[in-house]
Amino acid sequence: MSTIAVVLCLITITANAVMAVADLVGARFVLANSAAVGVPRSWLPMLGLAKAAGAAIALPLPGADGLRLRRVMCGSR
Questions:
Q1: Domain spans of the chain, in order of start
Q2: What's the pLDDT tens digit per position in 15-38?
């Protein structure tokens, strides 16, 4: 896997994790954006958990081949 692919995967994982935390804590900008598009406030914790799961699944699991897992998650062979 090329260096740029690894860097892009790590940036994507970080962005998902940051937005998951923002959803879970009810950040002001998240509340404003969700209200603007009609997403109920009660959905935010579940959306945050879904984003966190997406970030976590891309990380290497203990005992797993981390490089192979990243290849699968990032789509490179």
A1: 3-74
A2: 999 999 999 999 999 999 999 999
